[in-house]
User: Fold these one by one.
Assistant:
Number 1:
Amino acid sequence: MRTIKHSRQRESILTFLLNRKDHPTADTLYAGIREEYPNISLGTVYRNLNLLVELGEIQKLTCGDGKDHFDADTSPHYHFVCQTCGCVSDLPLPPVDNLDEQAQACTDCHIDSHTLIFYGTCVDCLANPMAHPSDT
């Protein structure tokens, strides 16, 4: 087992992420962390985010927008992505207890876990469609 040296920058990244519910990207985290650590590099932020994911302290979400989003909530839960403005949020839907087993019954492959992301339009975009015009 490898020993991980304590890092104030890593701790700051984790604290910053714990205080957010919007599932920020590395760039957003970098901009926020720079207020406390003006000399921190984007590479340092990426390395620490990847280490925190590897340690199981945060989740990395790939939502289809070409950017990784990060979530400090590692409990089983689902996400919603607005296809208009791109916001990512937790979906207050209890996880389906036996979904892995149901999927396992459909394949000879081995199912370890799953992620589930719902896509649609958030309430802010529904309320003000002119603020986020559709690409279609």
Number 2:
Amino acid sequence: MQKILIVEDDHELNQGISYALKKEGYAVRSAYSMKETQDIFYTINPDLVLLDVNLPDGDGFSLCKWIKHRAAVLFLTARDLEEDVLQGYELGAEDYVTKPFSMKILSKRIAVILQRSEKPNHRIFDDGFLFIDFDQAKASVNGSEQSFTPTEFRLLYELTSHTNQLLTYDILLERLWDSGNQFVDKHALAVNVNRLRKKIEDEAHKYIFNVYGMGYQWLD
């Protein structure tokens, strides 16, 4: 079942779109702000994000920069100026729909995007000791179920997606937290890495390595 995340702060409109899309067989979740979107993103790993530009804690253009490498984006917004539409496409959105809109046409555009960007298989990490199903937000360590915070899931996703590659502090800070309106320092990153190590590593299984002064690396 394909998953759609609706990021729209108008609760009535958000729920109306959600109801229509659920009737069409999609798995749908709703978010009403940038922060809520980032907090729940890796618990659902959506295939498509319907994204408003005007959000209570920032603008959707900034959020699109964070989402675009992780899911397809369709802007759904009242911002109908030509420069806004062009900016949406330049940021990597698959489509840009202005309000008011036809639900039938929106549904068709969604179907086209999902067909075009359909994932061949979902994302799993499994080495016999550590198992992570990113689509289902489930994980186990040595057969025992383990829970992670949304930030820890994001960190795991970034590291395991770039095995044996150095991810600098700045890259990780941008991908994990930067949404254009907040700043998090290296200390917060180090705290999350250390907490994650305690959950997934033992003497025989070491995954995350610190390249001093530069960043972190996930080694297979």
Number 3:
Amino acid sequence: MQKLDLNGEKPIFLQIAESLEDVILSGALPEEGQLPSITELSVQYTINPATALKGINLLVDQGAAYKKRGVGMFVAKGARAVLKKKRQGEFSSRFVITMVAEAKRLGISRHELLDMVALEFDSTEKGR
């Protein structure tokens, strides 16, 4: 899991949730795999257990995790698809909408914008 920014603007519980999402999306934590315990997370990051629980509960609320009473928290079946769809929506909101608005302000046509994106996409695949 990634390092947390304990002094940053983003709440720690959100960083915990996003870090776990990243591990699930990468496949490093498979569906039906057990999530780190609240205690493990709180010790690893030296945070309050309630903060760690709040982060994991975000995954539960999204349908990406579930609790087995007395055993722990687990990645739900279909979690990768749920998280991928969520992240794609966030990607569109954070980047695509902004990019399209700026392109329109600059008079960049749809075709020109698509060409620019394709060029960048292709150049990153080649390793620049």
Number 4:
Amino acid sequence: MLKRLMRRQTLARRIVLAFTMMAVVVGSALSLGIVRSVHYAEKTILSRAFKETVARVAEDLRQGREPYLNEGMRIFIQDYSDHDIPLAFRNARQGFSEMKDEGRDYWVYTRHDRESGKLYLIVQDQHDFEVREQILGVILWVSLLATILGAFILGRLMARRVMSPVTRLSQQVRDFSISRPIMPLAKDYADDEVGQLARAFDEAFARLGFAIEKERLFTSDVSHELRTPLMVIATSCELLLTTDLSAQTREQVRRIARAAEEMRGLSETFLALARAESGKAIEHVDTDGVTLKTLAEAESKQWAAAAAAKGLAFELREEGEDKGRYHAILLRSVMDNLLRNALYYTERGWIRLTLAEGEFRVEDNGIGIPDSEKEEIFQSFTRGVRACGEGQGLGLSLVQRIAAQQGWQVSLESLPHGGSRFTVRLKNEGMLGE
């Protein structure tokens, strides 16, 4: 239970709890030890004092003197007319003990005197001792509470001091960005555990940056080098379409041309992302960007034809006017991938592209996406158990990557009667101007 409780707390709270619990355990043990020691000393000292008192009283009686007793102390002698043992104390055991009489506590000491052969019994009222014990108990409780409070305050101060470099390191790691490298972390910390952690982060960031830079250069180089062969394919398709071809061959050439155009769009998208993530300026086909409506109308022509070829209805709906201007390549890539995804996963019914102020939605009445797969659907190479079409599970991952880079937001929800709705909210960060 305690282990589970500690695991749920932050490291700073664990330090405070450790200090407080240590104070509780040590303070309680010390208080208990003091109480036990007081009782032991009390019993030992009183037993010795009573023993000496009995010897003195016996000697006084043999000498015919009136015995002297301490305040609050009474002595009784068996079969002694003036000091016979009261009925309440006749069952007292030999030696030192505690008894009650009429609601009051007494220490009782009994002893046989060998010389006189009589039984002596001394009774001492505990009232004064109880008062002192109560005072001692209050002092112990106040001391224990003060110790716990002091340990709590000390734990807070120590936790703040210990966690300060950890918190600072955590913030530096949280602010880390590959496109905006930070200075080495280890130089700001002492050669201790936190410093070793900072050096480990430095090494990990260095390896991560190197790997990402290699990936970025590869993506940029491949995307750049693919431009020429894709252009050749597109031009060849255009020339072939001007010749005398059969209907089947002409359709195959158009399919090649569409695939080449999609590859060119992906190539430009990857190149734009690689430049953006490296801090370089993004190349634009149109310097002023493109409006959401203009791009959607152009894309609708292509995707309406693809939907019709599959027997699906395609609808472009406008619910509000968006005056923002956006990066044409990136916005087209996001829209294309969402429409392609809807086309893949819809066998019968409809696909709808809805435009609104600051956002657009892609809806379909296809097979939908189970709730268990929604969190993973935007990860690379994830297609789900109902995968359709020829995709490799990269489309939605690319959508998420572009949205993150542009400051857009992509959300997914299931429609009541089947199908999915993807909503892309276009933030100001992704706008080129109005």
